[in-house]
Amino acid sequence: MKMNRRGLLGLFGASAALGGAVEAAAGAAPSVAFVHGVASGDPGTDRVILWTRVTPAEGVSAPVNVAWRVLEGEGDRVVASGRFETGADRDYTVKVDATGLRAGRDYRYDFTVGEIRSPMGRTRTLAAEGAAPVNLAVVSCQLYPGGLFNAYEVIAALPSLDAVVHLGDYIYEYGAEDDAYGMATGAKLGRTPEPRHEIVSLADYRVRHAQYKTDADLQAAHARAPFICVWDDHETANDAWLHGAENHQPETEGDFAVRKAAALKAYYEWMPIREAAPGALKEAIHRSFHFGDLASLMMVETRLTGRTEPLAYEKDLTAKDGPDGEPVLDLEAFHAKLNDPSRDLMGQAQRDWLKGELAASKAKGRPWQVLGNQVVMARVAGPDVAKTLTPEQVQGLMAMVPEAYRDQLEQALFLFSLGMPFNLDAWDGYPAGRERLYAAFAEAGVQPIVLAGDSHAFWVNELKDAKGERRAVEFGTSAVSSPSISDAVGGFPLGPLLMQANPEVRFCDQSAKGFILLTLRPDMAEAALMQVSTIFAKPFEVTALKRMRVRAADGVLTEA
Description:
single chain, Immunoglobulin-like, Purple Acid Phosphatase, chain A, domain 2, 27 strands, 24% helix, PhoD_N
């Protein structure tokens, strides 16, 4: 299937969002433009969040009164409407919880200021009953300088789509220095982050969100269907946890709590997500969505509410004196840290909530429980290449790796020869917390479909607990545009090596970019791993890299 943007944006009215400032009629409200498109999210059976942002004319700082409406059917029959006043205190964003809608219906919506009208968006409410098929596009990791958002062009053109499930890394915090993440590509494509420095303040995060929402393909996808989102780490800073982040230096960047508060304020302003309840933690965005009698989607938060500090090999894998007095790696001490029972990603309160939601969904007779989770859950050891390849084969593969990354890969392969986890920032860095989660699955009597992002790779995994009992199926989506490990290590066959080394890994591709199209039916779930041929140009091709099915009756996973 060949994709080309021509005519696509016009279909959704998004082309109107790409022009310059628009003048209002004489005597109307201050001149504004809708340069960031429209979006919807967090659908319910009778409501949905509607979002846009008005850009006031230069020099205007007064509040702006925005009218909104929801239309049903092909005509102009308005079924909900109202007004929303926005201003500088919320960066001129508009967020409306449109209520009084009918379950399982398609709607259109738009916004106006005076005579100036926004693009028209499409959205859909959740079904209250029945088991009609549900189509979900699952995405993650969209680095603006990393490449074009071609996956969103495909998503915007899907003929049937109930929601887009975004698993995090909607924005990235890095700057535009020559050696900054993704800038080798960004400089070639003219996709330079704004502001040009690493974002830390509220103003910085607002500008970065605003830049991402000028992307035409992202606008088209937002205008196509409601988004159901959670953040991962880059919405604040790389490898974020409860009290800090790898990419936060308190000496020069201040208190992490202040930075986190700024990042979350901008996120709530710029994303079509329902606001936290009064008095509730803004970090606690775990919530559920029920698709009639067919499925429940539970979105969990694994970064800012319960995650203990991540381990890192460079600081936590220390040396001790060996038998001959020479230093050796203290593997026993490292594994003691790794398996510390206090290590967790989620926390007990959220886990109890999740267990209750899973059990309630099963009690309602829904065949599918789906977990919207940020990081890979499977047990994935790094590949010990000496067990599967000859020294000559290893030498040949290493010769294909760019010199700039060869030392890093050699160090990683050495650690993997010791049986170390592939990624300590994933659930593998929190094995005790993962066992507690698997116990919650078992107590609820379910084997859910786990969705994962973060890794910039496609995964199909069968999840088992420490005793070898099967607990879930996992589908991991690759990045929309963020670099994959294989982008750095060239022809090194990392995906196949991980499959050989790990019984839980049924499929792994460490180079393709795209998204997952998850289709749920009463008897079967199908995950199509959708690959775009390039993120560096248009037009492009889109193909299904792999199709997998899960039977509702027994949870058996097979190729489609």
